[in-house]
Write a structure and sequence with these properties.
This protein has a 7-stranded mixed β-sheet with strand order 4-10-9-8-7-5-6, with helices on both faces. By secondary structure, it is an alpha/beta fold. It is built from 15 helices and 17 strands. It folds into 2 domains: 131 residues, Aspartate Aminotransferase, domain 1 (Alpha-Beta Complex), CATH 3.90.1150; 257 residues, Aspartate Aminotransferase, domain 2, CATH 3.40.640.10. The longest helix is centred in the first third of the chain and has 21 residues. The chain starts with a helix and ends with a helix. The structure holds pyridoxal-5'-phosphate.
């Protein structure tokens, strides 16, 4: 196919592939071995959820087949084993984010729950009528709706920092949005639609000049970038396990201990208490104060295994390889006539959203599926962003380190074919 060959000729892929043995890595992911509609599966829907390496599947199997018990409660052997595996996973996450203390790591269901926790706990305690909360124009619904709910509850106001046509945050506009009424900034680290890597360190630094805390939605950043919460100096950081090669239903809220200490519990129930009487309940210490009920023990252990796996490859090597893949895929897709990539920021992760003149995104997704290629189509839980770019829907290919140049060629070839058939 001409466009892809031209890309090859341009030497985009001439460099070594960042030292990753991708064929070997693919062996670790059983799902990738299957065929879909008779074609080898090409999985480009990683931003929605990524595939799981065998070590993660094994960790779940081991927990349920040999260690299953509830945690923190029993004095029997299995319970102690499960507790130590669960708390071991917390330590791994602490190191993964470079947090300074285990008690700053709260296990939640995912990014969505992490943001809702902060909105309902921090927000209802510290945000009042007339106060302002700042988000950006490129947020996922998970970083919009919880704040709207809070605004309705307390009478505060949501303000939105605009972006440019490349999908980059307008930092000067952001600075102009801050004032003495601003009580919280909540921004995405990597956009799930545009792929933009936001300068969150700078965002935090500017907010801190006003003593405003910052929450970073790291759902799409944690799988691609090395995250150091101390270096970013963010006050909260949220991510989901299932996008980081871990199980569904588990995620993490990092929060600075002094803020978490000052916040009331988000939910009440078992494990989050120190003592209960009908008159008064004393709450448990961090992090348990925010982990009411029996948690997703297997999920936390599986997430720990996922973090070990990613660390074993190395996020720096992953990032370098993915950047090569991004350059190749961008060139290959750009060569398709009438195709427009939306999200052309200088700093990008491997998320490529596009529209094709005269063809609805769902039609692209359906035809690609017949070729065994899984992409996401629709509004990507970011309807205001669709409006910003004047489209009802986009097609999105999101790539990770187990994807290959050959898969990108298959994608570009299939999109050429979609254009030919539908136009
Ligand atoms: N934030 C961003 C940027 C996302 O991409 C997503 C999921 O796609 C979320 C938040 C919500 O994540 P979850 O559904 O795992 O809670």
């Amino acid at each position: 196919m001409k466009a892809v060959d031209e890309t090859d000729a341009a030497g985009v892929w001439d460099r070594p592939q960042a030292g990753l043995d991708v064929e070997r890595i693919r062996e670790d992911f059983p799902v990738l071995k299957q065929r879909v509609h008779g074609k080898p599966l090409v999985y480009f829907d990683n931003a929605t959820t990524s595939q799981k390496p065998q070590v993660v599947i094994d960790a779940l199997y081991t927990y349920y087949s040999a260690e299953n018990a509830s945690i923190h409660r029993g004095i029997h052997c299995l319970s102690e084993q499960a507790t130590s595996a669960y708390e071991g996973a917390r330590s791994k996450i602490k190191r993964f984010l470079n947090a300074s203390r285990e008690r700053e790591i709260i296990f939640v269901r995912g990014t969505t729950e992490a943001i809702n926790l902060v909105a309902q706990s921090y927000g209802r305690r510290f945000i009042r009528e007339g106060d302002e909360i700042i988000i950006s124009a490129m947020e996922h619904h998970s970083n919009i709706v919880p704040w709207q709910i809070l605004c309705e509850q307390v009478g505060s106001r949501l303000r939105v920092v605009p972006i440019n046509d490349d999908g980059e945050l307008l930092i000067e506009e952001y600075e102009r949005h801050l004032n003495e009424k601003t009580k919280l900034v909540s921004v995405v680290h990597v956009s799930n639609v545009l792929g933009t890597i936001n300068p969150v360190k700078q965002v935090v630094e500017i907010a801190h000049r006003w003593n405003i805390p910052v929450l970073v939605d790291g759902a799409q950043a944690a799988p691609h970038l090395r995250v150091d919460v101390q270096e970013l100096d963010c006050d909260f950081y949220a991510f989901s396990g299932h996008k980081l090669y871990g199980p569904t239903g588990i995620g993490v809220l990092y929060g600075k201990a002094e803020l978490l200490e000052a916040m009331p519990p988000y939910q009440g129930g078992g494990d989050m208490i120190r003592s209960v009487t009908f008159e008064k309940t004393l709450y448990n210490t961090l992090p348990y104060k925010f982990e009411a009920g029996t948690p997703h023990i297997a999920g936390a252990i599986g997430l720990g295994a996922a973090v070990d796996y990613v660390n074993g490859i190395g996020l720096d090597r992953i990032f370098a390889y993915e950047q090569e893949l991004l350059a190749y895929a961008t060139a290959a897709l750009s060569a398709v006539k009438d195709l427009r990539i939306i999200g052309t920021a200088q700093e990008k992760a491997t998320i490529i959203s596009f529209v094709l003149d005269g063809v609805h995104a769902h039609e692209i997704g359906t035809v690609l599926d017949q070729e065994g290629i899984a992409i996401r189509t629709g509004h990507h839980c970011a309807q205001p962003l669709m409006e910003r770019f004047g489209v009802p829907a986009m097609a999105r290919a999101s790539l990770v380190f187990y994807n290959t140049k050959e898969e990108v060629v298959a994608l570009a070839r299939a999109v050429h074919e979609v254009r030919r058939v539908f136009q």
